[in-house]
Amino acid sequence: MTAPLHEETAAETAVVEPALNKAEKAIEGRSLGRIAWERLKRDKVALIGGTIVLLLVLVAIFAPVIAALTGQSPNERHEDLIDPLFSTPKGALGGMSADHLLGVEPVSGRDILTRIVYGARVSILVGFLSAFVAVIFGTILGTLAGYFGGWLDALISRVMDMLLAFPQLLFIISLISVMPNDLFGLTGTGVRLLVMILVIGFFGWPYIGRIVRGQVLSLREREYIEAARSLGAGRGYIIGKELLPNLVAPITVYMTLMIPTNILTEAALSFLGVGVKPPTASWGSMLSDAVSFYESDPMYMIIPGVAIFITVLAFNLFGDGVRDALDPKGTR
Amino acid sequence: MLTYLIRRLFAVAVMLVVIILAVFCIFFLIPKWTGIDPATMFVGKQADKESVEAVREKLQLDDPVLVQLFEFFKGLLVGRDYTSGGDTTHCSAPCFGYSFRTEQEIWPVLTDRLPVTLSLALGAAVIWLLIGLTVGVLSALKRGSLWDRLAMTGALAGVSLPVYFTGLISLAVFAYQLDLVSNSFTPFGDDPVKWFSGMILPWITLAFLFGAMYARLTRATMLEVMGEDYIRTARAKGLKEPVVIGKHAMRSTMTPVLTLLGIDIGALMGGAILTETTFSIPGLGQAVLKAITDRDLPLILGVTLITATAVVIANLIVDLLYGVIDPRVRLG
Questions:
Q1: A94-153, pLDDT tens digit by residue?
Q2: I want to staple A30 with a disulfide (CB 3.0 to 4.6 A). Which of A34, B17, B101, B222 is the partner?
Q3: A1 contacts on B by Cβ (under 8 Å)
Q4: Cβ neighbours of A287 in B, within 8 Å
Q5: ipTM of the complex
């Protein structure tokens, strides 16, 4: 939960210096996005991370297609492949075979590959949407606090401090546990997904909010804002057209680095049994099932664990690359 | 200094009250909005009408939330009396009430489990500080070297691995395959050697994750600090490099590391849920997870409050330490 904190110093250096941009523009006529992209293109590690992220998103979107290609479905049981004595899969490496490329689950014999593929849907969906929720709340409240100052700033800042010091995991678990089975026309896993997205996003917004507030606080004193104001620009115009474009870079960096943290939180919640409901596949709940089999069927624990690891690592690598690319002080 | 302390303690009290309010909201107001009867929630779905009514009366669920809230605060500060069927039991301060499920008093449960979690968190903290600071400082001093690249790749991998996955792997390898350490928890009082053997894996697993975070943070801060003017001054007046680094640079580097340490140790008091679940350690995290799934409100309130208090106290200690370590900080 505390992971985004560590990026703070780095993200703060990712401030877009408007003056610097203009100077570069005058000389070479390249936009910030263009400069960032050219830097990112040279960062091989970040590109690899980005490619894996892209692949994962595609896997998540086309999960049914992949399942159809392998001829398996995530919830179909193959009890004939299970050793009745130990409830573990028959054959070596957790029952890997041409039919079941990554083997089958102990007890039920469900195909692990398709479950991993469907599990990617849950991870990616929760990871992205909760980061999106955090960005929306964080940007709005951070801008309000930074731009208007006074009691509004004091109030929002206090709330942010408090949320950051909250025992978050406890509250997330508690909130999920009191949610009913039917909500807004959704049932079971649907409710859990919605609640996870909202709650993880809710506890994430102060991280974005603090950065945005700090940025707005320093930007609103700049000459170009004063110039806009003296030309008669309204608050809405200044915030929307003058401030927000300069916030895009730090927000992008933070959002990319927040997604892996959220994916880890979703996996942790499912691991603890308050995430998606069975039989929906999630990497966290697969690992939680694997706890009882770590001695007899280690492959069942390794596969979802590696899936989480690769996903989170890819997002982190890509996020670091984006941060370096958007950092005007960077030398690369 | 004294006014500073008083101001901080006041903020602590406000924070704790807000947390209590939030927990009450979660378990009383949200069920009301979503149409769940708290009494049925606490008894379980299959309960008959009579036992639901019994619970409602025993827990005084018909009282308005504000009255229940008042009773809770009263119990915390001066103790409270419980009347059921003619008998009156006195619960002396600090009274967290009785568990809805086991009908045990909450306070002894908390004092039983706190030392377990505390020993887990502190033991791990010693290891991760050693690893994090050493790796971080060395990487910063040899920026761009092979060591730096390897260490930072390792650190990035470390922050991308969930604790319950590394935990399971280490259990499978070191406890099961190699049989080097114990795979279960033994209380310190029973057998200190066995206790140590059972705690090594949880400590290292936790320290691996946090050590990676701290290494990244230390490196980033150290690089920033080494560019400061006073470091150049120290070098210019002829100080030897070890003195410049050890005495001048390290002091400022420690500030953000300490901030994070305060937050992390505090958060681990309730956030070690994952580690405790993976290694079956009977600490606060395991107790609260069970309490949440049982909807045992008094126990949840108890653990949440202990956790929040720990976070706040740890932060306070850290703030006081700033003044000692970093000569640039003056508390006022």
A1: 667 767 777 777 777 788 888 888 889 899 999 999 999 999 999 999 998 888 888 888
A2: A34
A3: 267, 271
A4: 162, 164-165, 168
A5: 0.78
For A:124-163, CB contacts with B below 8 A are 162
Contact at 8 Å (CB) between A191 and A276? no
Contact B169, A308 (CB under 8 A): no
Torsion of CA A96, A98, A100, A101, to 10 degrees: 70
CB-based contacts of B295, cutoff 8 Å, min separation 6: A177, A178, B27, B41, B42, B100
The predicted pLDDT at position B60 comes to 64
Q: Is A1 touching B (CB cutoff 8 A)?
A: yes
The residue to which tokens 């933070």 are assigned: A254
Higher pLDDT, B20 or B40: B20
Structure-token pair, residue A13: 């250096």
Task: For residue range A139-182, list pLDDT tens digits in order.
Answer: 999 998 888 888 888 888 888 877 877 777 878 887 877 776 66
Burial B277-314 (b: 16+ CB within 10 A, else e): bbbebebbbbbbbebbebbbbbbbbbbbbbbbbbbbeb
Whether A195 shows a pLDDT value over 70: the answer reads yes
Question: What is the rounded CA–CA span in Å between residue B166 and residue B101?
Answer: 33
Q: Nearest by CB to A291, from B22, B26, B168: name it.
A: B168
- Higher-confidence residue of B235 and A32: namely B235
Whether residues A291 and B267 touch (CB distance < 8 A) is answered with no
- Please check whether residue B16 touches A, CB under 8 A: no
Alpha carbons A132 and A256: distance in angstroms, whole number: 10
DSSP state of B92: P
Q: Looking at residues A302-313, what average pLDDT do you find?
A: 90
Asked if residues A134 and A205 have their Cβ atoms less than 8 Å apart, the reply is: yes
Residue A3 scores a pLDDT above 90: no
For B254, half-sphere exposure in the C-beta direction (CA atoms, 13 angstrom radius) is: 20
pTM summary value: 0.81
- DSSP state letters, B244-285: IIIIIIHHHHHHHHHHHHHHHHHHHHHHTHHHHHHHT--SHH
In which band, very low, low, confident or very high, does the pLDDT at B82 lie, cut at 50, 70 and 90?
low
